[in-house]
Structure formats: C-alpha cells, structure tokens
Amino acid sequence: MDWRIKASLQKLLTLSRIGDKLNHIPATLNKEYHHNVVKYQFYECIRKFKSIDIDLNQMPLALEIGTGYSIISPLVLSLLGFGKVITVDIDADVNFIAFQKELKYLNRKEFIDQISNLGIYSEDIIKAKLATIKQCKSLDKVLAFANIKYIAPYTIEEIDKEENNFDYISSQVVFEHIPPEFLELLFRKFKVWLKKDCFTVHTINFIDHFANPGIFQDKKISEFNFLRFSDKYWKFWSGNPIAYTNRLSYLYYQELFKINNLHIVNFIGENYRPSKVLETNQIHVDILKKYKSKPNLIELTKYQRGTFIVKN
Ligand SMILES: C[S@@+](CC[C@H](N)C(=O)[O-])C[C@H]1O[C@@H](n2cnc3c(N)ncnc32)[C@H](O)[C@@H]1O
Q1: What confidence tier does 22 reach under pLDDT thresholds 50, 70, 90?
Q2: Model confidence at 144: pLDDT above 80
Q3: pLDDT in tens, 42-51
Q4: CA distances, 152 to each of 249, 275, 305 (Å)
Q5: Helix, strand, or coil (residue 226)
Q6: 153 preceded by cis ω (within 30°)?
Q7: Dihedral over Cα of 114, 118, 120, 122: its sign
Q8: Please, which pLDDT band fits residue 19 given cuts at 50, 70 and 90?
C-alpha cells in the first residue's frame, strides 16, 4: 500500500484529541500484543542495562526518556535495584488496565530469574514485590510502590525540579521522533544531569517508519525512502505529532554527543531487516543541510538501528 495512504490517515487522526491513541489501536488487536510488549520492553531494557557498569547497591537513580504505552521498562529497572526511576514522555499513554495484563506476563520464571541474576534482590523478594504490585488498585499505587515517577507530558524544568543527578539515562526508539532543536537542548541537559563516570544508553531507529511492518506497510519503498524528499514535502506528509520522524542518521547523534563532551564508549549499528538499497544520488539536498559538516552519503543509510553507549 502506498505510504501516503497511511500518512493521510495519520494526518486525519491528528485532528482528533485522541488521534495518537486511535493510531495505536490496530497494533493492540493482536492477541499476543501484551505479551509482546513485555518481551520487547524487558529484553531491550536488560540489553541496554547489561552494557553499563553500575553499582546497584548505591540505590542509583535512573531517567528514561520516552515511556510510550508501557511502564515495564522502568518497572524492570526498579526490580533490578534502582532506588528511583523517572520516566517521561510528551504524551500520557500508559493505562492501568493494559499494565495489569502485562504484569501477568512479567510474573514468569524466565523474567524473574534474569532480574534476580542481574539485580540486587533475591527471587523471593522479586516475587513478593510483584505480588504486592498485583494487589495495587491503581497505576499511581504501582508507581508509588516501585518508586517510579511518571511525568507525562513533561518539561525539562520538571525533570530538573524532580532530580538533577542521574546514575543512568536511557531511551528506546525515541530520539528519531524528536526535532533537532529539542534534541540539542536535551543533550546539553544530559551533560549536566548525568553523574561523572556514569552511563547514558540510547537505541535509535533510523529508518522511514512508513516502511515498518503492519497492514499499512509500503512494501515497495526502501527503508530509507524518506531521505528522497525536501523538508517542505516531508513536513506536508509527516509534520504532525503522530508521524513525525527527524530523518537523522547515527552521524548526527555522534556529533551531538561529542559537542557536549560525552564520551561514546561504543556504538552498535544494526541492520535488522531486509534492505532495499536507496542510491546516494536519491538523497535530497535538504537532508545534507541537517549536518554541521557535509556527511559521507554512504553513512546516511548504513544502519537501520543503532545503540549508543556513552559515558560522562
Ligand atoms: C516508538 S515510541 C517508544 C516508546 C518506548 N520507549 C518503547 O520502546 O516502547 C516513541 C515514544 O517517544 C515519545 N516522544 C516523542 N517525542 C518525545 C520527546 N520530546 N521526549 C520524550 N518522549 C518523546 C512518544 O510520545 C512515544 O511514546
């Protein structure tokens, strides 16, 4: 299906106050949706956590940028032994009923074993914590018990007021949805918020989301199709809160970490799905203008996804 059909529907949905929630409904129709959310958030959270060096006995403080529809990731950090987790998003999309369904899946041996192996609590304590959470009658009670502060929508000032000395800052497929101007502000704050010698880990998806699997997927386009267009054309089709992606490659973030004196310990670039090559001569000149110095065109389509492991 031509990607502009999905883009048109998303533009229409933007007119509604609950457009983003409506846009999310097709994904939730899958019977395995809640199980998949738990598996995805758990493994991605653990994968990023394993890449850092941190002393959980100090009850460290974590900040997650971009909560999304689930608090499984901050809850896993809490169960590992983080003393407090702040999770922020521009939209308040977490809901208690969905959380209760997800909790059933998290309460399984495969997850509890891994949390107790990597964290500070024994299996019995983790089971007891999960049992208490199961008894909670509201999301607020869950958040209070796990010492998770969920701020959505948030501002930089609210994070500053809540905490400004983090041991760990992470995000999962969020930066690509943030405009460059706000990314610059956020990265400057990372330098201030992150304690010396502590880590910040971010997984970013670099591809055109209209090529993502689903009923509206455009199977004919390259996963870097969006690099073909001018800013004006792209803004017309995807310049709305539901569809927005910034079309930036790993080079942009690499530069931003360096400018802010944050040391990139490792960058893991991945190609996780079949590729349809986009020739470099198809990349629009507006894309090149996003970079401080002219980028090597080959690099712009080198990775579909990547994880930055960065130390202050
Ligand atoms: C693809 S979802 C990922 C959610 C979650 N991290 C996950 O992996 O399931 C992207 C999320 O980024 C959020 N987002 C967009 N702009 C943001 C910003 N400036 N700050 C924080 N979150 C933002 C969106 O509201 C959305 O919930």
Answers
A1: low
A2: yes
A3: 999 999 999 9
A4: 27, 35, 26
A5: helix
A6: yes
A7: positive
A8: low
Ligand 1 site-directed mutation target among 93, 150, 177, most atoms within 8 Å of CB: 177
Cα of 171 vs its chain's centroid, Å: 4
Do 178 and 156 form a contact (C-beta atoms < 8 A)?
Answer: no
Name 266's bridge partners. 309
For residue 174 and ligand 1, the question of a CB distance below 6 A is answered with yes
The Å distance, Cα 300 to ligand 1 centre, comes to 22
Does 89 contact ligand 1 (Cβ within 6 A)? yes
Distances (CA, A) of 240 to 38, 130, 237: 28, 38, 8
* φ, ψ (nearest 5 deg) of residue 136: -65, 140
Which are the contacts of 178, defined by CB distance < 8 A and separation ≥ 6?
Answer: 186, 246
Q: How far is residue 134's CA from residue 100's CA, in Å, rounded to a whole number?
A: 7
Average pLDDT, the chain: 94
Query: Residue 153, class by beta-carbon neighbours within 10 Å (0-12 exposed, 13-18 middle, 19+ buried)?
Result: exposed
For residues 72 and 42, the answer to whether their CB atoms sit within 8 Å is: yes
Tell me the β-bridge partners of 63: 86, 169
- Is the model's pLDDT at 70 over the cut of 90? yes
Of 306, 295, 247, 228, which is closest to residue 271 (Cα–Cα)? 306
Asked if 252 contacts 184 with a C-beta cutoff of 8 angstroms, the reply is no
pLDDT, tens only, 251-296: 999 999 999 999 999 999 999 999 999 999 999 999 999 999 999 9
Q: Which residue carries 């509890």 as its tokens?
A: 112
Phi, psi of 166 (to 5 degrees): -100, 150
Residue 152: CB within 6 Å of ligand 1? no
